[in-house]
Amino acid sequence: MSAFPSSVVIREVGLRDGLQSIPVTLPTSRKIEWVQEAYAAGQREIEVGSFVPAKLLSQLADTAEVVAFAKTLPGLLVSVLVPNLKGAEKAIASGADLLLVPLSASNAHSLANLRKTPDEVVAEVARIRAARDAAGSRTLIEGGIGTAFGCTLQGRVEVSEVLRCMQALLDAGCDRVSIADTVGYADPRSVRELFAQARAMAGERFWCGHFHDTRGLALANVFAALETGVNRFDATLAGIGGCPHAPGASGNAASEDLAFMLEAMGIATGIDLDRLLALRAKVAGWLQGQTLHGTLWRAGLPKTFQGAVEA
Amino acid sequence: MSAFPSSVVIREVGLRDGLQSIPVTLPTSRKIEWVQEAYAAGQREIEVGSFVPAKLLSQLADTAEVVAFAKTLPGLLVSVLVPNLKGAEKAIASGADLLLVPLSASNAHSLANLRKTPDEVVAEVARIRAARDAAGSRTLIEGGIGTAFGCTLQGRVEVSEVLRCMQALLDAGCDRVSIADTVGYADPRSVRELFAQARAMAGERFWCGHFHDTRGLALANVFAALETGVNRFDATLAGIGGCPHAPGASGNAASEDLAFMLEAMGIATGIDLDRLLALRAKVAGWLQGQTLHGTLWRAGLPKTFQGAVEA
Which residues form a coiled coil (chains A, B) (predicted)? Predict the structure, then answer.
């Protein structure tokens, strides 16, 4: 049986994937407090927002301000999501360390959500790469392949199509590629199969796994991906985020539960679980009335729990 | 990476582990309805109750009646829990196919819950085995090792102690041995390590994994156990059951979510998910006001979902 990575990065995406699906606008000051306390709890990669037109996602209209603050924290890798070249130009100008361009492997989902085919997204990524290079910027470009296991419009998505998209993204100049189960269609066996092939294809450019807990399998899927050597996962505090087609359904993997699983396995995350749980309680207060998820906050850490010993 | 079993049995323990921790007494007629519909949905192993003194668990005082009904269903393996020889004699008299004797690997938990040390439980199992043989009964004896990863009284439990208890149970005449994470202390790496050793020790007498979802890891733990070749897991409809020390915390793995995971992986469970979800809705109505768990009931099956193809 396979070995596990000795350490794993949990990228906090609650400020983007989480907040964009919640009908609450957090003031910029609270987002900054969230970033600061996540950093204090040991998180070193945070997706702080999205450069999309403010009329589409007013919750994230202050992304440049949040990036500016986040960039003051030493050693924090600051990510943003961008849907197109215009957003990428803003991301590059903001000084973000990484911009993630989403691509839907499901053609139907791509047309419905991005109004582009997957191949048109790839072409946009090539333009973003050219713009980044022309600007002399060091902002990393991540191609994030969503609906990689299926979606509610199309049903199942074939592995071959995901891998085709991934190769195209790499060829178009992505520094990083990632795979996302956007609506909870993955299962651990499919994860194992796809991630093993994706890692073989992308090598060190394979970056991150992103699993939604829509059908309760997020952590099992993380475990299966871990076994293929993946060492970076997206998650959201309190598991916020989720699927507009399933109101009340679980959102992303909960950062605190994921950190607990990894630390319990002896895999270092750099995260102080008590501090992360304290932040969760604070954010839960800000989001009162919203459906939150996760289990650790209620059960607490096991007695005599020892997390991973950092190397 | 390891192969998976082609089929897995989900033993429904909601009528015992679930109901015993809920302050609602289901009438016998409803328990019978539950057994009947679980059977109709394809479940072929059900723990229908417990032979404990009625003054301790009045919810389960009708176990003999439920066994009698369950035994009318062809091919159903009818299990009951018994804490001691007196309960085992009732179980044997009832005609149950299998009686499970719980043993706590945590000495502190064992004394607090069973008022016996693990070794005293082993001695009781030897008496149960003698009584079963003397009666000429075919009722199988299962030794179920609980708190196998730790407990709230003692904290961590050592693998060596679990294996010592398991060997003692086998030597005392158990036909089957099982491992339970009673209060959500397991993680997938620990599961892999313990289950691989337990399977090597017990061979074909290794029976079942039982995982609570107290800290959200039940399905990840099942996946890790599957990789060691275990092909039988306990679960409860709607994830009922749970830990008296963590009110509101998640209970057992939810049968419907577990069945979904397995079927999505192409592992046959024999379960009709739509029928199981319909039964969940019915039982949820009976248990109104109680905290239920699970995710599939809300999200529904993925579009174009195909379960395992039965051999």
Answer: none
